[in-house]
Amino acid sequence: RLQMCGGFPWCIASIPIPSWAKRVFPDVPESEALERLWDAIFSAVRISGDGKCVEKWRAHLDTLAERLEKMNALNFKTLHYTNALGTDLTVELPEDHVWEAGNDVTLSGQNYIANIPTEELFTSPLKTGVNGVVYASLPLAHDGCVIEGFHFVVREGKIVEARARKGEEALRAAISVDEGAGYFGEVALVPYDSPISNQKILFYNTLFDENAACHIAFGEAYPCLKGGQQMSKEELKERGLNDSITHVDFMIGTRDLSIVGTTRDGREIPVFVDGNFAPGI
Questions:
Q1: Torsion angle of the four alpha carbons 122, 83, 206, 177, in this order, in degrees rounded to the nearest 10
Q2: Which of 27, 34, 157, 253 is the 20 to 30 A CA-CA neighbour of 95?
């Protein structure tokens, strides 16, 4: 609970091991696969050997901060997602929601980056405010199973239908671990043109794959409300956020993804055009 509320700094990162490398690069010898995975990770985290990694990260965080400020100022009521896969999903955002980015600050004021790599802006949806159909754009590696070609039908926030070409039983189990697992807890914006996406590699690791595309998570919501880090779990639930013991990200972004935001005064504003942030955001 302290981790979710900024009680202390933390970080998730991954380094290659032979079995993971062979999963990502199955057609090359183990030693070469390991080297290629190292190179892919270095590229994903902006390490190029020129000694400018920290400088590049500061510039990246500045870009995220600029977009964050714009998204919070727009104060959208809903986001409407569509693409050629068949996604047609409307996500209502709670009142006083806030967008956050890959860098964060603890309750005591210490800056940190929780996920390396990170490309996202994210917030929490209104638990009962998600409606439509959403298709995954990449396979999901979860609990040792790879789930492929899946989609959800959602009504008033609840997943009422789950279908998968492969791994459907595992998918159904994932959304059934508790009541909240069948609702959503995060929506995240990631440009299709990103260091992870541009490599066209499936990492079989959510830390990397979620940063390849816009994603949504079913399960626990982050306290993305004004003053949310100081609220109790009961207060967050009263404000419309989801509660669960799980939090599973799956990718929905595509090259043709469109997201249109509707502000609380009824204006429709493009947020994503052709898979990337719209001009001006």
A1: 80
A2: 253
Decide: residue 48, CB within 10 A, 0-12 exposed, 13-18 middle, 19+ buried. exposed
CA distance 115 to 217: 16
List per-residue pLDDT tens for the chain, 281 residues long: 788 778 899 998 899 999 999 999 999 999 999 999 999 999 999 999 999 999 999 999 999 999 999 999 999 999 999 999 999 999 999 999 999 998 888 889 998 998 899 999 999 999 999 999 999 999 998 988 999 999 999 999 999 999 999 999 999 999 999 999 999 999 999 999 989 999 999 999 888 988 998 999 999 999 999 999 889 999 999 999 999 999 999 999 999 999 999 999 999 999 999 999 999 89
> Per this entry, what is the length of the chain?
281
Q: Is 71 helix (H, G, I), strand (E, B) or coil?
A: helix
User: Can you read off the two tokens belonging to residue 97?
Assistant: 């929601």
In terms of Cα–Cα distance, which of 185, 187, 179 is closest to 221?
Answer: 185
Q: What residue has token string 């990694």?
A: 53
DSSP summary character for residue 27 = T
Q: Are 2 and 8 in contact (CB under 8 A)?
A: yes
What are residue 168's phi and psi, to 5 degrees?
-65, -35
> H/E element holding 268?
strand 268-273
Under 8 Å between Cβ of 171 and 136: no
* C-alpha–C-alpha distance, residues 175 and 49, integer Å: 42
109 beta partners:
none
- Spatial CA neighbour of 270 closest among 90, 280, 166: 280
